[in-house]
Amino acid sequence: MNNTITTSKIQCLDLKGQHRQIKQEVFDLFEYVYDNNAFSGGPFVEKFEKEFSAFCNTSFAVAVNNGTSALHLALLTLGIGPNDEVLVPANTFIATAWAVSYTGARPVFVDCTADTWQIDASLLESKITSHTKAIIGVHLYGQPFDVDAVKTICTRHNLFLLEDAAQAHGALYKNESVGAFGEMACFSFYPGKNLGACGEGGGITTNNENHYSHLLSLRNHGSKFRYYHDELGFNMRMGGMEAASLIVKLKYLDDWNCKRRQIAKRYQSEIKNPRIRLQYQPDWSSSVYHLFVITTPDRDQLINYLNNNNIFPGLHYPVPCHLQKAYQHLNYQHGDCPNAEYLSQHCLSLPIYAELQENDVDHVIQILNNY
Ligand SMILES: Cc1ncc(COP(=O)(O)O)c(C=O)c1O
C-alpha cells in the first residue's frame, strides 16, 4: 500500500471511465443502428440475445426494457397471479417484490442469514402455504444465494424457482454461471449494473423453449404474428441502441468482473478494523461484487468520517422490503426479519468498479483502518 493522499471524490460507482474507454466502439454501433432504423427490437437485440445466452450458458435469452419487466414477465410465464404467494427475500431491491405484486400475487418476505446476507433457506418451509407457487432467490450484491438449499425446498414442495440475477452477471455458483438454476433467471441492464446498457434494459435466460416462446409473445403485445394478439401482452421490447451498447460491453464484462474481484480481494485481506464486518463468502460462491457491502455499529459516524476523507459510500438498502410503506397493508412488523433489519440500519457499500484506481483503493483501506 502506498501513502498517496487522494483529493478527488471517490464515489461508490463512477461510470465515466468505462464510457470513455468504449465510447468510439459504442458510437460506431449506434450509427449502424441509426442507419438501419433498428430502434425497437430487431437484429441488434437478437444478436445481443444470442451472445448473452452464450455468456450464461443457457439455450435462450429474451431481452426486455428493464429488469423489473423481466421479473414480471417471468412470473406471468409461470402462470402466477391473484391468490398465489411467492417467497422473496426481505433484503433485496424492491423490484423483486414489485414483480410479484404486479401479477396480483402476494410477496411473502423471508429474512436473510446473519453472515451471507442472502435468503435464509432454513426459514423457507415455515413460510410455505397452500397458496405458495414460487420462490425468487436473489443473487444479491453479485453473490450467488445457496441455490441447492433453495432448490431442494422447491422440489419438495413442487414450487417454481426463479433467479433474480439483476446484480450478478457472470457470478458462479459451484463453478456454474448463474442464469440456469431455476425455470428462468432475470437480469437488469440498468446503467449502473455490472453489465449496464446506455439506457435501460433487462433480460431473461432459460433452457425451457416453451417459456422462451411465451416470453417473446408477452413482451410484444401478446403477439407472435403482427396484429394477431393471443393474450394480454405488453410493450416491453428492448431498444436497438440499448442492445448495441450491450453488445459492446458484454465483450469486456469478464475483464471488468475480474477487476472488481481484485478490488474485493484487497478489501477482504487488507481491511483489519474490528468495527467493520464484511459479507461472508462461502467457498461455493464466486461473487462478481456488484456491491461491496460492509456493516458497522455506528453507520452515520462512519459515513461522516468517510465523507470527510473524500469517500462517498452507497447505501443498499436503508429500508428492507417488508417495512416499506408500499407494503404496509401486508402488516409486517419490526422484528419480523431481524437480520434484514439489522443490515438496513448498519450497512454501507464501499466504492467498487473496474476503473477504480489502485491508489483510491489504497486510500479507502487506509482510511477505514484508521477509523
Ligand atoms: C435485485 C434487483 N432486482 C431487480 C432489479 C430491477 O431492475 P431494473 O432497475 O432494470 O428494473 C434490480 C435493479 O435495480 C435489482 O437490483
From TrEMBL:
Keywords: Aminotransferase, Pyridoxal phosphate, Transferase. Pfam families: DegT_DnrJ_EryC1. The keyword Transferase applies. It comes from the Bacteria. One of its GO terms (molecular function) is transaminase activity. The keyword Transferase applies. InterPro entries: DegT/StrS_aminotransferase, PyrdxlP-dep_Trfase, PyrdxlP-dep_Trfase_major, PyrdxlP-dep_Trfase_small. CDD domains: AHBA_syn. Its EC number is 2.6.1.-. Belongs to the DegT/DnrJ/EryC1 family. This is DegT/DnrJ/EryC1/StrS family aminotransferase. It comes from Danxiaibacter flavus.
